[in-house]
Amino acid sequence: MNVCMAPCPVVFDLDGTLIDSAPDIHASVNATLQQFQLDPLTLDQVRSFIGGGVEVLWQKIIAALQLQPSMQADLIAAFMNRYHDATGLTRLYPGVREALSVLADRGHPLGICTNKPAAVTATILDHFGIRDLFGVIVGGDTLPQKKPDPAPLRKALQDLGAHPTAPQAIYVGDSEFDAACAEAVPVPFLLFRLGYRQTPEEQLTHRAAFNEFSELPELIATFAEA
Q1: What local confidence, expressed as pLDDT, does residue 3 receive?
Q2: Which of 162, 172, 202, 205 is the most exposed place for a label (fewest CB within 10 A)?
Q3: What span, in angstroms and rounded, lies between the C-alpha atoms of 126 and 123?
Q4: Is residue 2 part of a domain?
Q5: Are the C-beta atoms of 13 and 173 separated by less than 8 Å?
Q6: Is 126 annotated as a binding-site member?
Q7: Which long-range contacts (CB under 8 A, 24 or more apart) does 148-155 make?
Q8: Domain of 139: which CATH number?
Q9: DSSP code of 43?
Q10: 105 annotated ligand binder
Q11: Whole-angstrom distance between the N-terminal and C-terminal Cα of the chain?
């Protein structure tokens, strides 16, 4: 039985899936902490905090540094002044551009569903010249809900033309947030192993996993085969 008949919609997470943005997020975090005369964090620490959106990022930073929760609003405001156009250290994962082009050429409607703010997401996609490949962008501030709530992914899929209650589509991501979101919709989840997840692969619900984006177009094609 087919999971979906091609060309079905394919929606992607962003941070840790299409892009390695941790270095830019880390730099923006530490510049903000320096502004408040606070101790810096390591890249590995910041990477482990990514995935839940800006508010969750700073909740985790505040807990790690044992700061007063009342500082969160000021820290986020200062962070966003730097983060909204932080692109200099961010990289596409190898093979992303080529894989997206193949999927688009095959007629798959493509979308983004991320907990990153929508404006920051658009800036990053413009920076890499791939924004036009995506028919919809759902950011962390597009709806009141964020992943792992299924509402953002459902919106992305509906905007791409999928059935509102039984979408025949695929979600591609790297994290616990993504796996739980896809399971809740539900749609098949493809796990990019080299992203930012903190949970062992075998503990995440996923249909398949991959290390190289060169594998992705044919992996997706298998879901259209009888």
Answers
A1: 59
A2: 202
A3: 5
A4: no
A5: yes
A6: no
A7: 148/176, 148/177, 148/178, 148/180, 148/181, 148/184, 149/181, 149/184, 150/181, 150/184, 150/185, 152/113, 152/181, 153/11, 153/113, 153/181, 153/182, 153/185, 153/187, 154/185, 155/113
A8: 3.40.50.1000
A9: H
A10: no
A11: 6
Q: Which domain holds residue 44?
A: 22-83
Which among 51, 83, 115 is the end of a domain?
83
Does residue 174 have a known ligand-binding role? Answer: yes
Residue 2: what pLDDT?
Answer: 45
Instruction: Give per-10-residue mean pLDDT for the chain (226 aa).
Output: 71 98 98 98 98 97 98 98 94 98 97 97 97 98 98 97 92 98 97 97 97 97 70
Provide the pLDDT for residue 226: 38
Hey, which residues are catalytic here? Answer: 13
Domain count along the chain? 2
Q: At what angle do helices 54-64 and 72-83 cross, to 10 degrees?
A: 120
Of 30, 63, 83, which marks where a domain is finished?
Answer: 83
